[in-house]
TrEMBL record, chains A, B:
Its EC number(s): 1.1.1.3
Cofactor dependency: a metal cation
Pathway terms, separated by semicolons: Amino-acid biosynthesis; L-methionine biosynthesis via de novo pathway; L-homoserine from L-aspartate: step 3/3; Amino-acid biosynthesis; L-threonine biosynthesis; L-threonine from L-aspartate: step 3/5
Keyword Amino-acid biosynthesis: yes
Positions of NADP(+) binding: L9, G10, I11, G12, N13, I14, G15, K16
One GO term of the biological process aspect: methionine biosynthetic process
Protein origin, superkingdom: Bacteria
Active site positions: K205
InterPro entries per UniProt: ACT-like_dom_sf, ACT_dom, Asp/hSer_DH_NAD-bd, HDH, HDH_cat, HDH_CS, NAD(P)-bd_dom_sf
UniProt xrefs under Gene3D superfamilies: 3.30.70.260, Dihydrodipicolinate Reductase, domain 2, NAD(P)-binding Rossmann-like Domain
Stored Pfam families: ACT, Homoserine_dh, NAD_binding_3
Protein name according to UniProt: Homoserine dehydrogenase
Entry binding sites for NADPH: K105
Amino acid sequence: MRKIKVGMLGIGNIGKGTYRTLEMGRKKIEDTTGLSIEIVKILNRHPDRDRGIDIPREKYVTDAYDIINDPDIDIMIELIGGIEPATTYMADALRAGKHVVTANKAAVAANGRMLQQLAQENQVLLRFEASVGGGIPILNAITTALVSNEFTEVLGILNGTTNYILTQMAENGASYEDVLKEAQRMGFAEADPTADVEGLDAANKLSILISLLFGVGVSPEEIPTKGITTVDKVDIEFAKEFGYKVKLLASAKNVNGHVTCNVEPSLVSQEHPLASVNNEFNAVYVTGSAVDSLMFYGKGAGPLPTGSAVMGDVISIARKIEKGGAYDLQPHLRYDAGAVFDGEGANQYYVRMNVIDRPGVLGSIATTLGAHRISIETMTQRANPSSSRESMPIIFITYDVEKTVLDEAIREIRESSYVKSIENVLRVERIGQ
Amino acid sequence: MRKIKVGMLGIGNIGKGTYRTLEMGRKKIEDTTGLSIEIVKILNRHPDRDRGIDIPREKYVTDAYDIINDPDIDIMIELIGGIEPATTYMADALRAGKHVVTANKAAVAANGRMLQQLAQENQVLLRFEASVGGGIPILNAITTALVSNEFTEVLGILNGTTNYILTQMAENGASYEDVLKEAQRMGFAEADPTADVEGLDAANKLSILISLLFGVGVSPEEIPTKGITTVDKVDIEFAKEFGYKVKLLASAKNVNGHVTCNVEPSLVSQEHPLASVNNEFNAVYVTGSAVDSLMFYGKGAGPLPTGSAVMGDVISIARKIEKGGAYDLQPHLRYDAGAVFDGEGANQYYVRMNVIDRPGVLGSIATTLGAHRISIETMTQRANPSSSRESMPIIFITYDVEKTVLDEAIREIRESSYVKSIENVLRVERIGQ
């Protein structure tokens, strides 16, 4: 049995999960692939720290270049996260003729083009299934089984922390702040939750998906991104009443080569399969020219699900090494398919505001929206136990409108004497057909 | 650009869908893979019949062996369906050194072991993604990205016709017979719907999944299979009231090498992601040792979704042909993993019966069940507008029980003087954790 030697950077939670996935699956892997895969060196800057996992001490190295420059190592796994020094290590490993597998969405979103170029020049493979959707094998499906499809749309619930928070707010009627604290206590949210709750993590993943699906480069910074910190439990309650759930959606469309995208809290129709994706689960819903609508659902994070995706990439490369032949160096990330990035695009929006309850208010709002050619699908003025004549909620849902046009109309409405506050503006996503 | 030549058996709906998928996706396929794939010969026994698709007449052949024996053809696609002559054609193509791609679940379930053996002997590849779940790339995921996982469970909604019928019965309160007629009128059900509504189609697909996931051979005939013809709209209504939907589930478990399975109409908890799979959609929910729970959702039939899966296999093989090197001949269907088939196993069951409404009936039923050591999770006696004291529905849901034990208890209960009829027995599936 051919032995494939692997070096791994990082032995945090994901590193340990990857190591465990390999050990747990060793017999199955050998039976079904005929390959013996061994992680022979692991970068561990604190080899004396108890990691809570039984790994022979002699595997540990404290210098990444003990792995990068080791001619016996075929594949390097990068699991240290963050853009640097991870990008430099991966680039140097590719230059040294090693195949590279990474779970690092930030580095791939920021430097995927350069790393892919280096992989091609050095006739080696770069794979990053675990960078989007954790254990869900979506990137592999897009680049292999579904490759004959032109993709027109992707909708993703790509961040488990925010989905957990929104699910708990909906199920327990709790506030954002209370659920966040609980999530931090349970380990579902980081001490500094900014990258998750502000949508930056989802934007990194969406940037990768857009390149794979539509062949256009949109950096995470270019993606219009709004987090969940402004979602009020009142919005979740109104949404439920209207037949929606509130989810942090990462979405992108390709209409005749014009790619639009955003990451923002959105009302998702309860009929939509994404509406049943709860707690820490992720899902990616894609629409292709032949296959129509597909959804992939699973655990978007966690040591073992992420380890499953990392090992899937490692085994795929190991099979190619063993079989000989040329590597398929066609780039998975594409930046050349003739598509152009066209901003946020038109969407339906839910708007909640508080107004002074006096005759003519609804008509006045409708007139302002009409002057901006914004069509209203539904508008509701509704008293609730905490409302008074001085502060009455009005909710409306628009038909498709450019966000800039809506923003301008809302700016005008906000200046009206009867408007107390614009409470929230959220995207609306219907059943995908 | 290397040209890969393909021969195709069959130009019915799936054949046309496959041809269209290739033509629609040609530019994308060439851009992303660098390959030019051409279907050069098509078996068409009636070349003068108008097929409603623009295909050059000179591609048509009337003898399968014009394709099987053509040394210029690299890959044969088999889309004629049925066990024979499809199996013979595939076997002869493999012997002639051609790679084979098929959408034929009946032939793969019946003869996959022999065909796979022939592929290995002749150093060529056999692929059958489209045979399970139509466009959903589940087989590819199991055999590549997820290969480090030991799988413990699969639950599938694998037949679009029956899922459409059950969804429409639930949404419109219509009877099985009325919805079947409507489905036939709309082309969602065949004129002879037996293979679909009796669960045989789902059993073929489950047999393939069991071999891929658990490495044990269970023939479709061995799988305990019950169709949807006995599902009454009353069962769907009661299920809804208790928080369930009724789905035709194909399910299999592997508990320490003991594989149990069945295909039968089941109550699925509304919290379960499978509960939101409606109409003609299919889904496969698998649980692996590292990745935990995953669900793949999409169109399980139809010309273009099936064409997407067929072309995915063709392109995967074409890439390997172009890159040279040895083929990975490790079998995907496994019959040797040390697992044994162990029948139907223990499940929760819903039982609906009609009884004469007199004191002590509930207690008597509970006593009989207790004597068989069957624990009851919930039992309800419930009048409804159509019930009388002479025929009152009783519904109970058991905890896990072997089906043979339940059947024996029900046989005893049926003999009681107060029991008018045993109306239905359906499996119950809770949220997969």
